[in-house]
Amino acid sequence: MKAGDTIRVCWSDIRHEDDLSLNEIKKLEPAPAITYGKILVQNDSWITLASTEFPDENGTEYRGILCIPRCVISRIIKLKEV
After folding, report:
1. Which of 1, 2, 21, 81 is deepest in the core (most CB within 10 A)?
2. Nearest Cα to 8, choosing from 31, 28, 29, 38?
3. Parallel/antiparallel/unpaired status of strands 73-78 and 59-69
4. Using CA atoms, how far apart are residues 31 and 27, in angstroms rounded to an integer?
5. Cα separation of 71 and 61, whole Å?
C-alpha cells in the first residue's frame, strides 16, 4: 500500500480506567478498534491516516488525523473505489 490509498485498519487501542479493583484490573484488555482512512504517511514503525480531506485550489487540508503504531495493528485492508 502507498500514500493516498484508502484503508481499513484493525488494531488494539490503549485503555485507561480509574478506580478499579484488582479483580477488575486483571480483566482489563486493550480495546479492539477499526479505523477507516486515507494513508498520509507510513514507515516501518507507524501509519498515519486522515478520515477527512478538504481539497481546494490552495492545497488539501486534512482532519481526523490518527497515527497508529504498527505494533498494535492486526490487519490492514486496502479498500476499492466504487
Report:
1. 1
2. 38
3. unpaired
4. 12
5. 28
Helix, strand, coil shares, percent, the chain, to 5? 10, 60, 30
Q: What is the H or E stretch that residue 25 is in?
A: helix 22-27
Q: Is 10 exposed, middle or buried (0-12, 13-18, 19+ CB in 10 A)?
A: middle
Q: How far apart are CA 23 and CA 74, in angstroms?
A: 27
Answer left, alpha or beta for residue 4, where phi above 0 means left and psi between -120 and 50 means alpha: left
User: Taking the model in full, what pTM does it have?
Assistant: 0.84
- The residue ranges of every structural domain in the chain are 6-78
What is the per-residue pLDDT for 52?
Answer: 95
Model pLDDT, residue 58: 86
Q: Are 40 and 62 in contact (CB under 8 A)?
A: yes
